[in-house]
Amino acid sequence: MKMGAERICMPSPSVEQFVHAVKQTVLANKHMVPPPGKGSLYIRPLLMGTGPVLAMGPAPEFTFLIYASPVGDFHKARTPLNLLIQEKIHRATPGGTGGIKCITNYSPVFKPIKEAKAQGFSDVLFLDAVTGKYIEEASSCNIFIVKGDTISTPAIAETILPGITRKSIIDIALDFGYQVQERLIVVEELTEADEVFCTGTAVGVVPVGSVTYQGKRFEYGIEAVVTKKLQVALLGIQTGLVEDKMGWTCMLD
Q: What span is annotated as the signal peptide, if there is one (predicted)?
């Protein structure tokens, strides 16, 4: 939030204010937390301009709020995603806001997502806007490819969001002994991958069942051994079923 606020000329709460607000929101809604295995309490922090102004420019005042809602699995039973590679519309452009959590990253992709879902796809995978050769992200999640013992993901750039689930999976993968590469990934590498998966706050870790590019569909095995191993490890830490050696979890009073 601090990174995004600075980019679009907004003040932001301190880390202490942010964590305190999240804790208070969870405690106030603890009766809404679903039973284990039935979902989670989705927490959404929001920072928005609210001051009275008509001129183009930063708002004179801002509101920081957090809302929460019980949710089931974003993708039911972690069903593998069927992605469609979008070549004509781009999620982000160099010099824009693709690298921060900002509404401008989401509303422009509603149309291609709607069209893809009408064709039976789960989501859209976007390519870089400059060359159209490299994969970047799906509409709301980062992407990884697995080849042997190497796990690769597009390197963080101003067009790619540095998702916290992305970072968590990288750290877990390294702890398991996998080689992790953050680099440019040409779209053709998807055709040779052993596994492909996506990560995000809402989706968690979800396998990709197929990718369709230029009318050709490339499918991946249902085993997804590496994906499931990482998925189980992250979920175990999040739910307190495994020891948190990373120091990520926050206990509520």
A: none
Does residue 216 have an active-site annotation?
no
Residues 38, 101, 111, 114: which is the catalytic one? 101
Note the CATH number of domain 81-239: 3.20.10.10
Q: Which of 173, 176, 206, 209 has its CA nearest to residue 190?
A: 209
CA distances from 106 to 69, 97, 192 (A): 20, 11, 29
pLDDT tens digits, one per residue of 128-177: 999 999 999 999 899 999 999 999 999 998 899 999 999 999 999 999 99
Residue 13 contacts residue 244 (beta carbons within 8 Å): no
Widest Cα–Cα separation across the chain:
56
Q: Which residues contact 118 (CB under 8 A, 6 or more apart)?
A: none
CB atoms within 10 A of CB 208: 27
Helices (H), the chain: 2-7, 15-28, 110-118, 164-176, 225-239
Q: How far is CA 109 from CA 98, 103, 104, 188, 225, in A?
A: 12, 11, 9, 23, 31
For residue 201, which of 42, 38, 47 has the smallest C-alpha distance?
42
Does domain 1-72 fall under CATH 3.30.70.1290? My reply is no
Rounded to two decimals, the pTM is: 0.92
